[in-house]
Amino acid sequence: MFQGYTQQTVDFMWGIRFNNERGWFMEHKREYQDHLLAPTKALAEQVYEAVHEMLPDEPLIAKVSRIYRDARRLHGRGPYKDHLWFSIRTGDQDWTGRPTFYFEIAPEYYSYGMGFWCATPALMERYRRDIRENPQRLEKLVRNFQKQDTFQLVGPEYARSRGEVSELLKPWYQKKSLTLQHELPLDEKIFVPRLAEDIITGFRELIPFYKYFANLCASLAEGR
After folding, report:
1. Tens digit of pLDDT for each residue in 161-184?
2. Residue 120 and residue 213 in contact, taking contact as beta carbons nearer than 8 Å
3. Which of 169, 182, 213, 223 is the most exposed place for a label (fewest CB within 10 A)?
4. Cα within 13 Å of Cα(103), Cβ side
5. Which of 72, 84, 97 lies closest to 40 in space, CA to CA?
6. Residues with Cβ < 8 Å from 204, sequence gap 6 or more?
7. How many CA atoms lie within 13 A of 98 on its CB side?
């Protein structure tokens, strides 16, 4: 069970940000393993169990990110990340184009929600077609979404209008990809076990959106 992060967690993340080289990391590797990696794995396992109960028929897995950057994509940056995340997603090879739950912790913030790592243009076009043909499906979800104050709709938008839809759905229709995100500066919540329950409660609110997008993915795969 997740027991909370510690001040050493925060200290390590700031440390690797300003000392992003192998020597420093090796000297502090135990701090990484004990105070960042281990609690993130515990948090992922606890949240995964809850999400699996909510979506028992979905082939979901939990994956914790690596702290090591891909050596082919350093682009002048150090070899290590200064943040860590986990995702709860399907095991498909194309999982980046499917709805995914996530949690991320960094030196100055933490974030969690549900969205796409990289929604395909085909999926987003299928999404916009569904809005045009069956706007009431998303309208019901959006009206409920507007009653809560935890998550925000974020994601890149097209500069030009993609078509005429209701004012309610326009912000959703214009997205190239989207995420329903809750992001906060690091606060005392990360130090207590209740963080896991807060994330689970939040993910429960997002289940209807997950099912909506999972159904769109299924219809696209079936050629509908």
Report:
1. 767 889 999 999 999 999 999 999
2. no
3. 223
4. 24
5. 84
6. 50, 54
7. 20
Q: pTM to 2 decimals?
A: 0.93
Q: Mapped to the 3 state alphabet, what secondary structure does 105-157 carry?
A: ECCCEEEEEEECCCCCHHHHHHHHHHHHHCHHHHHHHHHHHCCCCCCEEECCE
CB 141 within 8 A of CB 208: yes
Cβ atoms of residues 80 and 20 within 8 Å:
yes
Mean pLDDT of the chain: 93
Burial of 186 (0-12, 13-18, 19+ CB in 10 A): middle
CA 45, CA 79: separation in Å to the nearest integer?
Answer: 27
The answer to whether the CB of 107 falls within 8 A of the CB of 186 is: yes
Contact 86, 43 (CB under 8 A): yes
Kind and range of the H or E run holding 103:
strand 100-105
